[in-house]
Amino acid sequence: MCAAPKQGNTLIEVGNQTVIQGQVWHDGAPVAGAYVRLLDSTDEFTAEVVTSPEGEFRFFAAPGEWKLRSLAQVGKGERVLAAEVGLNETTLVIE
């Protein structure tokens, strides 16, 4: 069983954590069931979650530069972001 927290619109207390969350989109709609991978600055795999029915994902990470990569039946997308302590929201668009 996966130990990842349940994905969704639930409010979380961020405190001094670094949270990376967002949605995966394709053709103007959220993508459910997409795999979202979290890679560190050297492209090493760190974690993976599956998007919720609303295309949402969430990771708890350390501050720094991260790469998000989405993989779905409709294609793939990628985004690099510099995450800081607190809530870091982003959108991954599948081309």
UniProtKB/TrEMBL annotation:
Protein name in the entry: DUF1416 domain-containing protein
Originating species: Trujillonella endophytica
Biological-process GO terms, alphabetical: carbohydrate metabolic process
Pfam families linked to this entry: DUF1416
